[in-house]
Amino acid sequence: MNFLSHFYFERDNHDENMVIGVVLPDFVKNAQKDSNLYPLKERHLFESDANENSILSGWARHIAVDAVFHSSEFFKLHTNALKQIILPVLENSPVKPFFLAHIGLELVLDHLLTIHGTVNINTFYEQLGQVNKEALDSFLKKSGVADTTVFFKFLNSFISSRYLFSYQKIENISYALNRICMRLWDSPFTEPQLALLTDKLIIFKSGIEDNYMSIFRDIELHLSSGNH
Questions:
Q1: SS3 (DSSP) at 97
Q2: Residue 226's pLDDT band (cuts 50, 70, 90)
Q3: Residues 111, 205: contact at Cβ < 8 Å?
Q4: d(Cα 145, Cα 139) in Å, to the nearest integer?
Q5: Residue 209 φ/ψ, nearest 5 degrees
Q6: How big is the chain by its Cα radius of gyration, in Å?
Q7: Which sign does the torsion angle of CA 224, 204, 114, 36 carry?
Q8: Measured distance CA(11)–CA(121) in Å, rounded
């Protein structure tokens, strides 16, 4: 799941350190894509500091949510459906259909959460801005990030750009997908392909709009019952 979908499960959580923990695995990947951190294997390193422990709790929550999401029928069904819908977009494109469908589904879910006002983007950004920077820096260093400068540059830019507000427009979901694909492939899409992708995402979105909250309810049930 993407940033806002993860935040959905913490929308009433007033612990900003846990909130950033929930999106931290993705933030770390965005800042330095070759980073592979496994703080849950070293829990003892964080237990003596309440703020670091909150970040770790958020990290654990992220892993649990993704595990339920990626093994769900919802994910399999709608990733396959989107894959079929977007195939015409991928003619003469190096992008793999499953990859685009997987990320596309996650971003469309974020888009739906924003347009229906199910999450408050302002609240999310405010909480990110209130995080204990010293604890976050220490958490990352203990997790194996020797130099946290690149990460904090990414984080400050992410907060100041207010980029997630752009998710309110479906055409910006296409551009976000293009940016993600550009990390893996040179020139993933032409402008006409991006326009076609937007058209296809509109079709897909209209097909899941009435039922998209079911996956959030299912994951909440899993989390509350401890089935992760």
A1: helix
A2: low
A3: yes
A4: 9
A5: -60, -35
A6: 18
A7: positive
A8: 10
